[in-house]
Amino acid sequence: MSEQNPYQELSKLLGAPASKILPPIIEMIVDEKEIKIVLAAFPPATIAELADKTGIAQEEVQTMVKTLFLKGLLFFSKKEGDPRYYRVKTVPQFHDSSILWEGATPEFHKLWKEYTDQEWSEFGRVVEAFLPRPPIRIVPVGATIESRAKVLALDDVREIVNQARNLAVTRCTCRVVDGKCGKPVEICIQVNRAADYGIQRGTGRAITKEEAMGLLHLAEKEGLVHIVDNRQKVDHIICNCCRDCCINWKLPNPRKFVDPSRFQALVNEEECIGCQVCLDRCYFDAIVIEGQEPKARINPEKCVGCGVCTVTCPTEAMAMKEVRPPEVIPA
Ligand code: SF4
Ligand code: SF4
Ligand code: SF4
């Protein structure tokens, strides 16, 4: 493969210049003409501009951009005038968009699994140096927070759903590719612009607020961790993550990418019967059961405030307490 190979070039633009697996992944779903369009789609360009840049006839470009949108390599915006198309920007974005393409084959998913097993850590190591702050954050399971007065809208997945203009459910790409945990797959909730995108592309199914609440309930019962964009207003997705398949936990330093919530688990020792149910629920090894009369104890260094341990405690001995004040989160 020469340095000029366009699949390698796109891999480099996605942030993985040394990848051996990403170029074949791209090549598997994009032919030689299509990759020209993808590479030309930055800065965002109209059909006429893409035709001009690539030498491909406008009518053909018109058909190709539709296909590339469905494959998850092109997006478009229509602020004013003709729509402008722009290419996928990062490996994680390409991971999520391409895996859900309805034409994706088991071989394609297998190659993504190879990528996440073999090269994803290295990608994380390089990218973490450039991140100003973690791009996503954990939102706690809210039912057992000790004082509801301390819960802001951005700490509460149900409030995020309540305030949403549009909602869709989509499949969890990590479990589509891996899936060894056996947890529900169609359970990630797209919010507003992401829901518009998913519904238009056919990768999201429109849902009501009641259905979204039902999915949150199922996620909590299954012990999945809620993760959202690390912004004040969630306008993208509520991910419901498992321990086994989630690519976030496979990064060398997950805390560089995922902020903990403002809460931590708190054990009421009077009520705790040392049954260990919470021990199995915690992904983060933050709980130990110890003492002559065994009780659960929380390691504050490890607890990320997901609240998953609180859901199934038989004596309601586990609650969540606020440990950090609301910080200034970018809009
Ligand atoms: S980040 Fe979590 S919910 Fe999102 S795709 Fe991965 S495991 Fe699924
Ligand atoms: S599940 Fe509840 S009662 Fe059981 S060990 Fe954990 S905190 Fe204690
Ligand atoms: S102890 Fe574990 S499961 Fe409970 S809130 Fe902390 S990280 Fe989550």
Notes on the structure:
By secondary structure, the protein is an alpha+beta fold. The chain has two domains: 6-128, Arc Repressor Mutant, subunit A, CATH 1.10.10; 136-322, 2-Layer Sandwich (Alpha-Beta Plaits). The chain has helices at residues 6-13, 22-29, 32-40, 47-54, 58-71, 91-99, 106-118, 120-128, 157-162, 173-177, 193-201, 209-221, 277-281, and strands at 74-77, 84-87, 136-139, 167-171, 186-191, 204-206, 225-229, 237-241, 258-259, 263-267, 287-290, 295-298, 318-322. A seven-stranded mixed beta sheet has the order 6-4-5-8-7-3-9, sandwiched between helices. The protein is elongated, with a radius of gyration of 22 Å. The structure holds iron/sulfur cluster (3 copies).
Keywords:
binds iron/sulfur cluster, 331 residues, Alpha-Beta Plaits, two-stranded antiparallel sheet, 13 helices, 2 domains, Arc Repressor Mutant, subunit A, 13 strands, alpha+beta
Strand arrangement across the biggest beta sheet: 6-4-5-8-7-3-9
Order of helices and strands: HHHHHEEHHHEHEHEHEHEEEEHEEE
Radius of gyration: 22 Å
At CATH level 3, the topology of the largest domain is Alpha-Beta Plaits
Which ions and ligands are bound to the chains? iron/sulfur cluster
| Uncertain regions spanning at least 5 consecutive residues | none
Short characterization:
The protein is 35% helix and 17% strand. The chain has 331 residues and is of the alpha+beta class. The protein folds into two domains: 6-128, Winged helix-like DNA-binding domain superfamily/Winged helix DNA-binding domain (Arc Repressor Mutant, subunit A); 136-322, Alpha-Beta Plaits (2-Layer Sandwich).
